[in-house]
Amino acid sequence: MRIALACASIAGASAGPAYAQYAEDVSASIEVATDERRRGLSWSDGDPVVRGSILIPVAAGLSLEATAVSLWGAKRHGGADAVADLGAAYVRQTGGWRLRAQARYHLFPGAAGQGFGELGAGAGYLIGPASVDFHAVYAPRQSSIGGDNLALSVSAAVGVPGIPITVATWIGRSSGDARDTVAAARLRPDGSYWDYGASVDYLKGRWSAGLRYTDSSINAPGSCHTGATLIGRVGLSL
């Protein structure tokens, strides 16, 4: 559970969804956070957010996933009031390896023509209390993002022995083809770039809390909410 929580925290800040074990029961969670950062970019213009998620297993290894996050009119996404991430994922455990494939579409209520889809794959390996994960997420060419987008990342997490705390770190690289430089700046304001960070998460029963540091190599003039920041979060599993 501590490893899964850390991977989920990494996902919110950088590369994508968590590479967790297959769940047999419906699960849901709600949390508040001081920012919504994904791959080093703030999706909420640096404002606090409320996030709700649900996972519904439909077959062995296959689940439907949905997450909704308040954005409060974020300029990065055309003034959208929220983002709804809708998709499906398939997880398979092979020995010590955890393999995952996914498809996801991002809807942006309150903004027209902002939605885009992504495909992803990853592999993780569990070594005692530690986990190492490799992720790849690709958004095919779409007018809403000005071209295509490829995000590669590696993350590592380790549970602290004897206490319900997990420490994690990650680094990622985003690149792609820009057919429309204005639209492409939405996900890559400085062209190809790196993002990186670290997190500390605490889990007690149904409650969780964490701190996350994230930064990026973006240095484009006028780029907002892309630099170093410390994010706090508190969550509840339902």
SSE blueprint and pairings:
Elements lengths: L1 H12 L13 E7 L3 E2 L2 E2 L6 E11 L2 E13 L5 E15 L2 E11 L8 E12 L2 E13 L4 E13 L5 E11 L5 H4 L8 E12 L2 E10 L12 E9 L1
Number of strands: 14
Separation of the first and last Cα atoms: 15 Å
CATH topology: Porin
Mean pLDDT: 91
Unreliable spans:
1-21
Q: Please name the CATH architecture.
A: Beta Barrel
Which descriptor suits the 3D outline?
A: globular
CATH class: Mainly Beta
Task: Give a structural overview.
- This protein has 238 residues and is mainly beta.
- It has one domain (2-237): Porin (Beta Barrel).
- It has 2 helices and 14 strands.
- The strands form 2 sheets. It has a 12-stranded antiparallel beta barrel.
- The two termini are 15 Å apart.
Summary, kept brief:
It comes from Sphingobium baderi LL03. The protein is mainly beta and 238 residues long.
